[in-house]
Design goal:
heterodimer, A: alpha+beta, 7-stranded antiparallel sheet, 3 helices, 7 strands, about 35% helix, B: globular, binds iron/sulfur cluster, binds FE2/S2 (inorganic) cluster, ferric iron binding (chain A), NADH dehydrogenase (chain A), NADH_quinone_OxRdtase_su15 (chain A), Frataxin/CyaY_sf (chain A)
Amino acid sequence: MANSDKAALYRQWVELLGWLEQEAAVRGLSTEKVADFPDYIYRMERPYDLPTTVMSVSVGRGGQALLVAAVSPRHVDLGGVSLRLMGGSKHWHLHAGEGGLLEGKRPFTRERLGALLDGALQGRSTLAV
Amino acid sequence: MRRPTGGPVKVTVDGIPLDLPAGTSGIDAVFAAGRDVPYFCAHSYLSPVGACRMCLVEAGTPRKGKDGELEKDENGEVKIFYFPKPMASCTMQATEGMHIKTAATSEVVAKSQAGMMEFTLINHPLDCPTCDKGGACELQDRAFEYGYGASRFGFDRRHADKHYPLSDFVILDQERCIHCKRCVRYFEEVPGQEVLDFIERGGHTFIDTQEGGLPTGFSGNITDICPVGALLDNVARFRGRNWEYDHTPTTCTLCPVGCAITVDARNGRLERIVGRENRDVNEMWICDAGRFGHSFASEGRLTRPLIREDGKLREADWDEAMAAMNRGLAGVHPSHLGLFVAADSTLEEGVALERLAAQLGTGNVDHWPRYAAQLTAPTATLTDVAQADAVVVIGADLGEEAPVVELRILEALRGGILPTEFDHGTAIADLRLTERPARTPEKLAVIGRESGLWRHAGIRAASNGHNAVARLLRPDTDELRAALALLEGAKQPVVILGADVLGSGTEALAAQVSELASRTGAKVLAIPAGANSAGLAALGLLPRDGAAGYAGLGDAPAAFLSRLDPVGQGLGLPRGFTVVHDTHLTETAKRADVVLPAVTNYEKRGTTVNLEGRFLALEQAALEAGEGADLIRTLTALAGALGVRPGVRGLKSAQAALHERLGVRVDGLPERGALNLNVTRAAAPAGVPYTPQLWKPRMRPVTREGETWVERTRQLVEEKWALPMYVPQPVQPGGDD
Ligand code: SF4
Ligand code: SF4
Ligand code: FES
């Protein structure tokens, strides 16, 4: 990935984190940081230039994660953002685009995220407990 | 040593010839040869499944030709036909004439193992420095021993949920899981609970529960067997690194099973308890109370003596406490002094008490809790329980009384297979253990109230305890008739008696139990009320000469109480001068005249006798106890205050006295303890009813305030995602190292 793509990826990741936080709150879901970048934690004196330390977050209810969102660490080949519906066997791979994250060729919008969260909630409520 | 029957087979490992019992797995053949094979998914007490593919070896067997003779090579040697691919040695049976090559002699094996190691590490998160398992991690050790030490994998790793509490006690990190399935198999095979499983498939597989959490009972064992830091003890979370702990192998005395445990202490605090193997007692499993219920040992301890002055307790030193006891007991005739101790006191402490009571001439000695009945039927061992072909449990709630007995019963229901023992220890993979084992609930009858065991039993009879044995002898319902028939039809039946029977035991009970045993040939396991009630009863620490004992405490003109809380129990205080020896300021201690700090059983050297009559050793963990003293030293102080020179003054003299008294040597007991079924246990009316309760209120883990490991992303958003420590710096010339 070119460096400019990387910069875009992490900018768009931070934007996505903001959406996640807000869209989750609207639906009464909690957002929790899951992990920081190992490359931030263990970098010692090496320079660090990403706009966030957060590598993955979860959106959940009652302490259980419904959706985990993560971005690849900066040294990774073929990096991108992944969204996974925990237990739903659904996985979305996003990559950086010029105007924002792309799901393949399709722009990944805030509305699209909202639809995924609604779907997650719906799936959750139809699960036999 | 228990070895399976069946003729030996000849196996050669790396050129080393061996004679092994038939049925031995390849992995055990390798270890029997003194060689090594890495493994993750195999576990001695679980079914081998060949999931991790770490234990690969090259294996081959001779083959018979058309003439019925073994085929030879051109040199006339028996020819070994190697399997075309490396074999998982944990699921492969070592057969007659088999040759096995490990990494020590086979390039192919070395490369396969390194390759598997690389696979296993591909998706592993980079958590080692913050992972509580670090330093005691099977993945780290095997990677160090068998891996290439370099990564070729440049892609992103698996992301999943981390630090996710499965219960108050167990915390899960889904990213660290290597999918060995030990935890899933454990729950299904050992406590018989299907509460944990893999969700999704492929690289997305993760561990979770649909039940909304893990049931408390035996959940903590998965934190011992998880080979990585995926499942961790939440009570011991972030307390210390494995190599920083002082490890003390000792015996749990929360209940009369007496499981083998290791107490991990650091800076004088008890931080963690893990299970330890004792094939004869707990195999490798301990209950959640025994594992997680240790906070009291390091929280709110009494560390100094207290004496009452102007109606209030004030801190003092031992000399002042002795002076106060001397003054307070001055008007009391020593033979009127009541001496009452907790039933988990050690044998050594017990014999010191017995000697002192004799010197003082008091018969008012007692331990609590205990039951009145004295049974003479042959005692079943825990191994007898595991191998029984019929088990009838009467009036027991094993979850409260002796949890691990429940596991041994469940072991009987899945065939009573005890893994083979080799010189290298318990078989790493016993091929007779199978995944999702068939169970035989019809071998188990439960008579009494509903309990955790109820749902595993083929025969269930509701009954209240006091006449349950009598009713079983003359059954008046179909269920009881079935239970009696079960015992009568069995070759190795075992009857287990619990609190409801023993606590309300009438004088007739012993006779009824004997009748049942002789009629059915059953051995009997009566669960004592206290962890060492059996040992203290063997010493006869019971009221004599018409003394009222602990039940008559309120009438004692003066009393000494060690780790008993009659006020908290609703029994009241002795009417005269009261000395309390305890680890915490209990309700009784608050009202005592003198309070002496005690030590917990984690800090004692000594001996306990478990429910089957096995003498087990306690070792002393390095915990901060202030001026706390065990009962032997405390009785020496009491004797001093009374102007008596005690007969037992330390551990050595206590052990000598025990040898004299019971004919048993308790110094240098073997690892697994020594079974002694010949010691007679005295009995006397108990008077105080006892309801077994495993988790005492004090044992609940303390939630440490202000310790939250979950950071909200909201904070990060509000702080504009600013890096807490980022200061742009020029790159150092010459690189950074
Ligand atoms: S959580 Fe641990 S024990 Fe369970 S499958 Fe994963 S690695 Fe194995
Ligand atoms: S079963 Fe009893 S001895 Fe074993 S760990 Fe639990 S409380 Fe301790
Ligand atoms: S395949 Fe895991 S130990 Fe053999």
